[in-house]
Structures are given as structure tokens and as C-alpha cells.
């Protein structure tokens, strides 16, 4: 049973007031899951579910700004999603293109596309690159949009880039093997130069990462929410932050 609007707002205010500023994560990753199931339960088309999910993104970024989050990574399309039926995939690509372009056109956020864009249709990749370029000078919340993204693929791409770089410098495989460390690989990830995620949120009740930020999330905290992504509310977000703030982060120690 949902709360009456005034009580909901009061609860939201209390959650926000009780959130310690020092406990706010710097980088939040979000697995936007449940669009299709939301559409099925609502008796709507799959495309309607994806559009409802895209519409939710601006709200999430606004909430993130309000509490002081600096970086948000949104998993919008996985490499596995690329095997969906062609008609659904074409609709999803269009919705993603329009959503990312809208984020860029707002002028509020610095958008960066992370993923294997070579796996996407050429027109889609070009529109995403152009959207990213328009926000290069924006001094606001940094938003990674993970599209055509898979954690294993990212690590494989990083290793390939590292090997190519060293080969171009005349360094042999044997020499590289003697000096290779985790930082060498981290410097070639899609998110190189960025802080690792502190908190990863997944909606829809699924309790797995599915390879999201596989390398970067080694020390992240996880929060799994039952709501489908289009139904994700500000109180759900604040509960995730409250849960994060209450944890003792050991960071592998």
C-alpha cells in the first residue's frame, strides 16, 4: 500500500535529513533493470517499458546532484542485450540514442559513453559520440552511459589495448610479463582516470551483477531494490544511500 502524498514527502524529507554528508558515495553505479517486466505487468509494449525507463534517468541524476554524488554510471545496454530480436533491438537503440542526446542537450551533465561501440550500428555509435562531444566542457555531474557494455569484454579490450601500446613501444611480451600489474590494466579500462564505484544499485529484485563494472567494483557496496526501474522512486534511492552510509567499508582490509 502506498503512502498518501504528504506522508510520502515527509518520509522522503526525513531520509534526506538523516543522510550524513560524509557518508554519500562519490561514484554510484546503477543497473537499470526491469523495463520489460514493468511493461508486461502494465499490459504495455516492450518499447513503452524502455521509454518509461529512459524517462526515469533525469530524475535519478537530479537526486544524485542534490545529495552530492559526483559520478553516476548507468548500464543502459549490455553486450548480451545485442542478441535480442531485431525489431526490439532497433526500438531500444532509438530510445537510447534519444535519451543520451536529451541528457547532452540539457547542458547539465558531462556525458561519457563507455562500452564496445564497435558492436553497435554505425549510426548509433556516431550519435552517441556526438552527444558526448557536446558535453566535453560541461562542469557538472559526470554521467557514464554504459552501452554495448560487458565487464569481461571491457577487461579483454583493456588487455588488447595494453598489448598494442607496449608492442608499438618495442616492448616484448616477455618484458611486459615481468612488469605487468593491475594498474597497467586499470589505465586501459573504459573508465580509466575515474574513481571506482562506491555503491552499485540494481533494480527489479535481481541479486547479481551480471558483469557490471566487473573490475572496478571489487570493493563496492551493493544494494538490490525490488522495484522495477521505471518505478524506482527517490525514497528507494535515499534508502540505498542510507544503507551505504550505515556500512563499515573495509575495502579489502
Write up this protein.
- With 253 residues, this protein is of the alpha/beta class.
- It has a domain at 25-152 and 199-245: Undecaprenyl pyrophosphate synthetase (3-Layer(aba) Sandwich).
- Helices cover 47% and strands 13% of the residues.
- The chain has helices spanning 5-17, 35-42, 46-67, 86-106, 122-134, 151-168, 173-179, 182-186, 234-246; strands spanning 27-31, 71-78, 110-114, 142-149, 199-202, 221-224.
- It has a six-stranded parallel β-sheet with strand order 3-4-2-1-5-6, sandwiched between helices.
- The longest helix has 22 residues, at 46-67.
- The termini are far apart.
- 35% of the residues are buried.
Quick overview of this protein structure:
With 253 residues, the chain is α/β, with parallel strands linked by helices. The protein is 47% helix and 13% strand. The chain has a domain of 175 residues: Undecaprenyl pyrophosphate synthetase (3-Layer(aba) Sandwich), CATH 3.40.1180.
Query: Please, what is the CATH homologous superfamily of one domain?
Result: Decaprenyl diphosphate synthase-like
Beta percentage is 5-15%
Mean model confidence by pLDDT: 95
Oligomeric nature of the chains: single chain
By DSSP, the count of extended strands is: 6
- Number of helical segments with 4 or more residues: 9
Order of helices and strands: HEHHEHEHEHHHEEH
Give me the secondary-structure category: alpha/beta
Using only CA atoms, what is the Rg?
19 Å
Amino acid at each position: 500500500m502506498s503512502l498518501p502524498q504528504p506522508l510520502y514527502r515527509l518520509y522522503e524529507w526525513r531520509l534526506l535529513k538523516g543522510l550524513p554528508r560524509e557518508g554519500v558515495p562519490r561514484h554510484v553505479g546503477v543497473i537499470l533493470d526491469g523495463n520489460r517486466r514493468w511493461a508486461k505487468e502494465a499490459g504495455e509494449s516492450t518499447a513503452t517499458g524502455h521509454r518509461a525507463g529512459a524517462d526515469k534517468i533525469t530524475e535519478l541524476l537530479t537526486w544524485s546532484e542534490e545529495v552530492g554524488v559526483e559520478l553516476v554510471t548507468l548500464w543502459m545496454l549490455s553486450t548480451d542485450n545485442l542478441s535480442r530480436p531485431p525489431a526490439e533491438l532497433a526500438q531500444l537503440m532509438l530510445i537510447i540514442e534519444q535519451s543520451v542526446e536529451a541528457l547532452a542537450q540539457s547542458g547539465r551533465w558531462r556525458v561519457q559513453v563507455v562500452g564496445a561501440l564497435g558492436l553497435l550500428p554505425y549510426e548509433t555509435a556516431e550519435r552517441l559520440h556526438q552527444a558526448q562531444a557536446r558535453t566535453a566542457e560541461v562542469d557538472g555531474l559526470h554521467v557514464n552511459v554504459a552501452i554495448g557494455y560487458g565487464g569481461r569484454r571491457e577487461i579483454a579490450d583493456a588487455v588488447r589495448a595494453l598489448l598494442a601500446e607496449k608492442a608499438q613501444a618495442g616492448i616484448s611480451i616477455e618484458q611486459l610479463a615481468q612488469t605487468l600489474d593491475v594498474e597497467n590494466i586499470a589505465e586501459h579500462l573504459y573508465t580509466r582516470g575515474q574513481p571506482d564505484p562506491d555503491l552499485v544499485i540494481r533494480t527489479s529484485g535481481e541479486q547479481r551483477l551480471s558483469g557490471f563494472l566487473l573490475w572496478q567494483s571489487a570493493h563496492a557496496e551493493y544494494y538490490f531494490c525490488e522495484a522495477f526501474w521505471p518505478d524506482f522512486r527517490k525514497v528507494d534511492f535515499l534508502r540505498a544511500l542510507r544503507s551505504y552510509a550505515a556500512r563499515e567499508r573495509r575495502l579489502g582490509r
